[in-house]
Amino acid sequence: MDYIRAFIVGGLICVIGQLLMDGTKLTPAHVLVAFVTSGVILTAIGVYEPIVNIGGAGATVPLPGFGYSLAKGVFKAVNEDGLIGVFTGGMQATAGGVSAAIFFGYIMSLIFNPKSKS
């Protein structure tokens, strides 16, 4: 049942993104920024945590989940370190994912021959 809930929640997030790109003039970059920002805002007002509890990885893996991780890291760091946690908490919480993205992106650029679109 956990897999089904994750599939439904993650699928709904993807449907929202696709509708935004198809129905508006927003570019994928705009949608990316909107999703990460909405993840932070929804976490700050307490709405995203119940979505994570229901959807699990379906809610934490997509882009709003990155915003969720940033916000949770900031909340934790502020509680532990005070005001300096506003600046350090988000990166501490997401450093593993960011490092993995950079590392695997580099490996893929070595394996494949990247080309310009034009």
Secondary-structure topology with pairs:
Elements: H1 2-23, H2 28-44, H3 48-55, H4 57-60, H5 63-81, H6 85-111
* CA-based gyration radius: 16 Å
What's the N-to-C terminus distance? 45 Å
Note the run of SSEs as H and E. Answer: HHHHHH
Write down the domain tally.
1
Number of strands: 0
The portion of residues forming beta strands comes to under 5%
Average pLDDT for all residues: 91
Sum up the overall morphology in one term: globular
Structural class: mainly alpha
Low-confidence stretches: none
Number of helices: 6
Largest sheet: none
Q: What percent of the residues sit in helical stretches (DSSP H or I)?
A: over 70%
Please summarize what this structure is.
This protein is mostly helical and about 120 residues long.
Descriptive overview:
This protein has 118 residues and is mainly alpha-helical. The chain has one domain (2-111). The chain has 6 helices and no strands. The protein has helices at 2-23, 28-44, 48-55, 57-60, 63-81, 85-111. Helix 2 crosses helix 5. The longest helix is centred in the last third of the chain and has 27 residues, at 85-111. The mean pLDDT is 91.
Keywords:
118 residues; mainly alpha; 6 helices; 82% helix; Spore_V_AE
